[in-house]
Amino acid sequence: AAPGSVADGLTVPVLPFHMSDSPSEVTLPPQPVGAQTAEILAELGYDADQIAAMRSAGCIN
User: Fold this and answer.
1) What distance lies between CA 23 and its chain's CA centroid?
2) pTM higher than 0.70, yes or no?
3) Cα distances (Å, whole numbers) of residue 30 to 23, 38, 46, 48, 49
């Protein structure tokens, strides 16, 4: 990651070996905490009002 970027200093586990045709590297910074919370809760069956209530109560980000 570029110095000063969101991912600077982030340790990401990788495979202990490298494959020549598929190099592994982190190309994007991580998403903020809670970025997918609403999507995941919706997949679990919660509706928009329930998710909004959880957010208002401070239960989720």
Assistant:
1) 21
2) no
3) 19, 17, 25, 25, 28
Q: Please, which residues have CB within 8 angstroms of residue 26's CB and are 6 or more apart in sequence?
A: 1, 7, 10, 12
Query: Tokens representing 7?
Result: 């991912």
Sign of CA dihedral 51, 54, 52, 55: negative
> Is residue 49 within 8 Å of residue 25, measured between CB atoms?
no
Cβ atoms 32, 23 nearer than 8 A: no
pLDDT attached to residue 45: 98
pLDDT tens, position by position, 1-41: 556 666 667 776 777 777 778 766 767 778 888 999 999 99
